[in-house]
Specification:
Elements (H helix, E strand, L loop, with lengths): L2 H17 L3 E6 L8 H15 L3 E6 L14 H4 L11 H10 L2 E7 L6 H8 L10 E3 L2 E3 L10 E7 L9 H14 L2 E8 L6 E2 L2 E2 L1 H20 L4 H7 L6 H16 L2
Parallel strand pairs: 1-2, 1-3, 3-6, 6-7
Antiparallel strand pairs: 4-5, 8-9
Bound molecules: flavin mononucleotide.
């Protein structure tokens, strides 16, 4: 085999290794935790990742002993670089995130994030190198040497009809990835997620979407990517906009009737 061929194979293998998903930390930011719509969407996705060989750790932001970032002076950059001035559950979590190659941030849309999820995102700061760069038209940092993370994925649920409801949360994770210098692999979004259930049970369509989420997890683990067709099917409308709006407004009118 010629040297050029060896080199090409080496490059391809390197690329493959760069793409492989081996170790995942997933943070579910829903205050409703296991009972929430976010868990209904996230869990099959993580199952797919595990089935394809990834090692997955799931944590609930709500259960973490994590204080909000309130020192107000970036102590983790200026005071004790790489270490937060608060000692709480975040140190442990940061250590585990630093060893993962993939961070999955899962959240309901809460105009835009639930408070505890925002706290966790703010407290990622010690993982960043305290040095500014100008990249892709913006002032950015990057993860410190020793942080293995290569990609971030968003999994999000919303109550309303249209996918546009997810633009802000998507932008947050996209921006965070770009600033940290890692790939934003994509957004797995499920508008009007509650419609996957009927009378408290998963509907037939809900089960089908869970199957697609599992498939998306497997695809991510195997290829390091999420197929646009899979994502489009997962976020497909389950009712018309008009019908959903009518359902909400009737429920609101009933709830507000004296
Ligand atoms: C404070 C608050 C704000 C919300 N804002 C939005 C919103 O802007 N767009 C949307 O589609 N859903 C919104 N929702 C609905 C939730 O995102 C949706 O019901 C989600 O599926 C809940 O997930 P969970 O059960 O895991 O908490 C909001 C819910 C709450 C409580």
């Amino acid at each position: 085999m010629g040297e050029a061929m060896n080199e090409a194979i080496g490059e391809a293998m390197g690329e493959q290794a760069g793409r492989a998903v081996r170790r995942v930390v997933a943070i579910n930011g829903s205050p409703r935790m296991e009972k929430g719509d976010t868990a209904m969407v996230l869990d099959p996705f993580l199952r797919g990742l595990e089935e394809a060989g990834a090692d997955v750790e799931l944590v609930y932001a709500e259960r973490l002993d994590v204080r909000p970032c309130t020192c107000g002076r970036m102590h983790c950059w200026y005071g004790t670089p790489g270490t937060c001035c608060f000692r709480d559950g975040m140190q442990d979590l940061l250590g585990r995130i630093a060893q993962a190659d993939t961070l999955v941030l899962a959240t309901p849309v809460y105009i835009p994030l639930p408070g505890k999820m925002q706290d966790v995102v703010n407290r990622l700061c010690p993982l960043m190198e305290p040095r500014l760069e100008f990249r892709e038209g913006r002032t950015r940092s990057r993860f410190r040497d020793g942080v293995a993370l290569r990609r971030m994925v968003l999994v999000a649920t919303g109550g309303w009809w249209e996918a546009g409801n997810f633009d802000t949360v998507t932008r947050i994770v996209e921006d965070l990835s770009a600033t940290a210098g890692v790939a934003f692999t994509g957004a797995v979004i499920r508008p009007h997620a509650f419609v996957m259930r009927a009378r408290g049970e998963l509907s037939k369509t809900g089960r089908a979407i869970q199957g697609e989420l599992q498939q998306a997890g497997r695809e991510l683990a195997e290829t390091g990517a999420l197929r646009p067709e899979t994502l489009a099917s997962i976020r497909r409308p389950l009712v018309s906009e008009e019908r959903l709006r009518r359902m909400y407004n009737e429920e609101l009118a009933n709830a507000n009737r004296g």
